[in-house]
Amino acid sequence: MPHKIARIALDVPLPKLFDYLAVEADLGPADIGRRVKVPFGRRLAVGLLLEMADTSDCPPQKLRRVIETDRTRPPLPADVLALFRFCANYYHYPIGQIALAALPTALRRWQFQLPPPRFRHALTPAGRRMLPDSLPVRAVARRRLAARLAAGPADSAELGALCSNAATVLRQWHEKGWLESVHRDKAAPPPVRPQLLPEQQSACACITARLGGFASFLLFGITGSGKTEVYLRLVDEALARGHQALILVPEIGLTPQFTQRVAARFPDTLISVLHSGLAEGERLQRWQLAAEGKAHIVLGTRLAVFTPLPELGLIIVDEEHDASFSQQEGLLYSARDLAVFRARQRNVPVVLGSATPSLESWHNAEAGRYALLTLPARATGAQLPELGLIDTRIEKLDEGLSRPALKAIGDTLSRGEQALVFINRRGYAPVLHCSACAWVAPCPRCSSRLTLHLREQRLRCHHCGHEERIPAHCPACGNPDIRALGQGTQRVEDALARHFPDANIVRADRDATRRKGSWEAMQAQIHAGEANLIIGTQLIAKGHDFPNLTLVVALDADGALFSLDFRAEERLFAQLMQVAGRAGRADKPGRVLIQTGFPQHPLFAHLLAHDFAAFAKEQLESRKKGELPPFSRQAVLRAEAAKLDDALAWLQSARALVPAVPGVEIFEPVAAPMQKKAGFERAQLWLQSPARADLQQLLREWVPRLHAQSARKVRWHLDVDPAEN
Asked: What is the pTM of this model?
């Protein structure tokens, strides 16, 4: 009788499955996709059963045995396992590391415990009568709680973000009979659906007609054109047919507002929100509800693309252009591209939405691979904001702010409206500089400068996290007169507080929103009108809808115009167009002012005309001449070591192992644009081909040779379709 061999995927950096004896574990083909516990080296490891076999290349007497099998939950479905294999084959990454990373963190350990079900707080009829009228006008935080509960049930974590003593207030309201606890939201009256514009109706009809089969759609709609309403109509139709809908958003910061809109439209539908900010147990619960088909709407960031969904009928990728959909550590993948693959695999439609589509998606639409649907007008009837440039070669700047910008902010605040000052740089200033010897504070672990965080009295590296105290004098020459150069969000905040002492200012950046729930609380402040002057980074530049925000001032965006990254202009255009779209979304006209020292640059001409199509045409023509993506396919082999020479030498030996495949260009190894990061010297080797098939053929032959090559002093990884240089 042949031995039963279980082939297990383990979370180790080797591109193979590991063979174990499975006789005592009673494993069979029906168990493929289950978690198993196995010995690995001197430890026990959690793995995933991916194959069963009768024979092994290893003699049976040398094989170890599967210790235990998890039969408390169903195995992962075949389509998810196929998605793992596709990633392993396309991105040339160990399948075990893909499979285990795709599971909730709790499932990567053998023992775990589901937390008890979480209750949600809901207003009783008495609570609806009493709140918020019984609250003092000055009880701003409690009024915020009451307003949120009036919109529907909410859990303690969400409410805790809106009020510092929410637990006490909620207990008091429960005691008064104003609140009750519910396991899930009660049935609510059907929400009012807005009237669709003809273009929205047409988009919905085109996509709905393809439900039940694969099709890729690019929904190109200007900011405020009602893309979200189209998504909601499509989800409604998918739910009516008994399907699940998967909605991907690029960042955690976009999930609260999006979730509220989805929950308000589908109050009786169980929604699973999945992102890395969740506690382990909470994430496992939500993932399990999706995998069991109980959660009919799954809304999440990029890792949610791997979620098991037995009744999947629709995939939506919002802000599909966003670089956050590309993972930049571990498995380097594009969640947008995997969403398209999964839609084809499951034979369902996928909708990619954006006001500024990626040039890859735009090119696919022009080539007919995606169906292009356009929403050219704002759904509310509001006009696009008026865009203008402020020439910083002429205007004198006060802490990075020009006089026209300050006047526009003052006028906006005097009308009782909100203004947003956008600067995509955290901290107080990007450089601490000595005027005597030109010293700047360097990061000892990176080829970068330390950012000054004046309030915390620290210098920080935003690449590796290194921190140190601010020196009292120049470490190079002893000069005590060291100064901050440039502006960050903190410095702009101080300057605006000086110019507008009566303004209610909030700063929306990653430093100010580190505490759990702080970003949700900040959004609630802005929506409630408690903040009228917002300073923000890209955290606030996309997807948010603040009806009273009528002015956007963009500072210091010129650096991207002359970047070595060929995608820099595309990203800058998208960023400015997205942040400009925050202005004038309701019944008040919007205005956008962009400070620049290069007002004649062609990018600004297209931006002022709100003409993405012309910008995309110009960029694609340039890319085609340079044989750059999307007119070619790229891969980059990156290496890092304690010494740059070691990294370059290893890449040179790797280059010698490249198989001969016609049509693939192999470049010489070079130092990375950021040569040093987190203490390691970095180098890279680029490959490029006009044909994806040729490049993949080369990688299939080359990567096994790389794994067989000694790399004792070097860490390396392969990046296929790299999102950045």
From this structure: 0.89
